[in-house]
C-alpha cells in the first residue's frame, strides 16, 4: 500500500536562514510538507557564500553548505525591503500553516512579518523564531553563529585539555541540537492546532538547547558547586580511555575499558605484556593513578596496527573500540552504507552530491528526498504563478522593479569567480 | 489539564537505560506521562555520576536526576513470563514504547514491534541504539568516545594530531533527541490515520548529521577536516584563530568583513576599541568592506601568502597583545554596545549565573522532598506560546516508587499479588 507522507498538505513559508531554522523546515519537507524558501539575491544566505564551493569557485549557487539543509524546498527570490515584496510575503503567510524565521530579533517586525502581524493575516498560524539567545533579554540582540553560542554556553570550556586553551566547536555544535527540539515541538504544535483551532508562537534559544545536552554538568554546579573542566579524552570511570595513534598518517582509534572483564579482554588482545600484571595497572584505581604512563604504553602498542585492526581485535574481545573516522572514512563506513546514510541528488550547479539522511527511520512512512536544494529563486515561476496566482505581466513588472531579484542583483564580491 | 501541555494525556513506556533515556525526558518536557520501567534493583544509569554531594548512591545520581526528570518509575523483570504479560497489559493502552536494548532482544522476548502492534495497532515503538537495528556494527560494544569517534565528531575537534571529544557525553543524547523527533513524526501520522509504526534510531547517524559541512567538504572538494587547536581550519591548517586569552579567562571572536555587514561593523568597532589603548593604529582606517575573508582563509589552507593572509596574521598578533589587557566582562560589555562579534568563554558557573538566561527565566526549581531540598535545573529551550510556562512534572523517580500507583491502582493488583510478584522477582 502506498501511504501518504506524514506531513502531506502542510504548507511552510520558510523565511529562515543559516543552519537551525532551515534544518527544521527541511525535516518537514523531507516528510511531505510543501516548503517555500524565501530568499533575496541582494543579501544571500551566509551559507551560500561559504565553503565548500564546487571546484573552489565562488558563486551563490555553488556551495554545498548552502544546499545541505534545503532538500525538497521550492526556491523563491523576493526583496522584502520593497513594499511589493512585503505584500508577496504576506500572501505566502496567508497560504502557509507554518512560518519560520531565524533572524536577529526585530528583523521580521521591520518587514511587518513578526508573529503578531502574521497572526492578523492568518489567525491560526504556527510561527517559530530561533536565534542564539532567544527573543528577549539583555543579550537578545547578540547575533553570531553556533560557535559563539557554544563558547558562551559551556561547550568550549569543556573541549580540549586541562592544561590548554578551551577550543572552538568547529561544527557550531548547538546547530545540531536546537533543530531537533524545535522540530519535535513544532509537529506537536500542528496537532495542538488541529485539536484547538489555535496557532502558536515558538521562541527558541539555541544556547539553551545546547545547555540541555550538558544537564549533568550544570547540575554538578547548581547542586555541588563544582565547575567541571575539560579533561582531554579522559573519563572518570574508565581507564584506559582515550584516542590512540595507529599505523598510517593521521590514523587513530578510540578505546574505552570500563570493567575488569574488559580489562582482561584488552590485555589478551595486546598479548598480556608484563607491565599489565604490574599492580600499578592491574586494578582500576591503579590505572587511574598511573594514567599518563598507561596511555603511553597503550599508544606504544596501537601504533603498530591499523585503526581498523585494533577496532576489530578489541571488539572480538568484548572491548569498546572504534576507528576515529575521518570524513573520507564515513563515506566508506560499512554501517553507514548499510543504513544508506549518504543519499545523492543532482543539483543544477554542483551536480550529484551527498545529503545526510535523518538518524531516525519510520517503518511505514520513511522520509523521502526528491529535489536537490534550490538555486536562489529556482522555483520562481512555479511559486509566483501556480501558488500565488500572479500573471506573466505582473511577474514581468516585478522583475523590472527589482521586487523579484535575479543573479544580476548579487553583490559584486559574491559573484562567480 | 490535558490542554496545558503538548503531550498531556499521552503515555510513554520507557524501557531504556542511559543509551536512550533522553528521548523520554524530552517527551516528558512536553507533558507526556512517562513511565520509566527499570529492572528490579534499578537502572544502570543510576550508577553514572556526578552524584548529589558526591555520594555514590543509586538514588543520588545527577545523570539520573536529569534524564529521568518528569517520569514515574516502576520495576519490572521482562525476563520472566509474568513480567512480559504485565508489560503487554501496559502496552495495550500506551501511546509510545521506547527501548534501547541490543537489537533483537525485544523480539526474542516476544515483545518486538510486530507483537506490540497486534496488541495495540496505534502504538509507536522507538528503538534507540548505537548503530540502528541491522548492519555490520550492530553487535559492537560502544561508549560515548567510541560512538562519537565512529560518527566522525572527535576527528573534527582538537588538534591535527590529537582528536578529542567533548568532556561531557553526547552520543546517546543525540540518539535521544532524534528519537523524540522520530516519535513525534510517527505520532502526527498516527493522529491522522490511527496507525502506529516503528522508529529505528541510529546514534551514529545522529552524530554524522551533526558534522555541519565536514562531510560535504570531503564529498565535493576531497578536503579533510580536523581540529586545529583554538582556531578554524581544514587539512590540518589553521585559517584563523578564534579563541584568545584575556585578563581573566578566554574570549571567542571572529574577524570578518566583505559583503557581510555585521562583520564589517564588528571588525571596525573592535579595531576602534583597541586604538583607544594604542593598539592596531597601523590599520586604523582599514576598509573592512574590501576584506574577502573566504579567499584569505582559503589561501591560508593552501599555505599561500596574500594581502588577506597578512591581515589575518596582523589581527591575531594584535589581539594576542590587546585582549589580555581587558577582562571578559569589559570586552563583552563593549561587544554588546558596539555590535562586536565577541563573546566570553563560559564555564558552568558563568552559564548558571548568566543574566540572559535569568531574564529568559530558563532555570527551573525541582523539589526533592527526601533530600529536603529544591534543586535548580536547566529548563526547556523553547518558550511555547499559549500554554502555561514549562514546569517539570516531578523529580526523577526512586526505585519502584510508583509500583503501587501503576500495579494496584491501574492494573488492579491486590497487595498480595504485588507481594508475590516482588517475591518471585517479577517486580
Please give a structural write-up.
The complex is a heterodimer of chains A (417) and B (427). Chain A has 417 residues and is of the alpha/beta class. Chain A has two domains: 11-213 and 339-414, Rossmann fold; 241-328, formyl-coa transferase, domain 3, CATH 3.30.1540. Chain A has helices at residues 20-29, 64-67, 83-95, 107-110, 115-121, 146-152, 178-196, 206-212, 215-224, 260-269, 274-277, 279-282, 284-289, 291-302, 307-316, 327-332, 334-338, 380-387, 392-400; strands spanning 11-14, 34-39, 74-77, 98-101, 126-131, 200-205, 241-245, 252-256, 320-323, 342-347, 351-356, 360-362. In chain A, strands 3-2-1-4-5-6 form a six-stranded parallel sheet, sandwiched between helices. Chain A has a three-stranded antiparallel sheet with strand order 7-8-9. In chain A, 58% of the residues are buried. The model of chain A has no long low-confidence stretch (mean pLDDT 96). By secondary structure, chain B is of the alpha/beta class. Chain B is built from 17 helices and 16 strands. Chain B has helices at 21-29, 62-67, 81-92, 105-108, 113-119, 144-150, 171-193, 203-208, 214-221, 261-276, 293-301, 307-322, 328-338, 348-352, 355-359, 403-410, 415-423; strands spanning 11-14, 33-38, 72-75, 96-99, 124-129, 158-159, 162-163, 198-202, 231-234, 237-241, 243-246, 249-253, 342-344, 364-368, 373-377, 382-384. In chain B, the strands form five sheets. Chain B has a six-stranded parallel sheet, with helices on both faces. In chain B, strands 11-12-13 form a three-stranded antiparallel sheet, with helices on one face. The longest helix of chain B is centred in the middle third of the chain and has 23 residues, at 171-193. The two termini of chain B are 31 Å apart. The model of chain B has no long low-confidence stretch (mean pLDDT 96). The chains are: A alpha/beta (417), B alpha/beta (427). At the A-B interface, α6, α7, β6, α8 and α9 of A face α2, α6, β7, α7 and β8 of B. β12 of chain A pairs antiparallel with β8 of chain B, so a sheet runs across the interface.
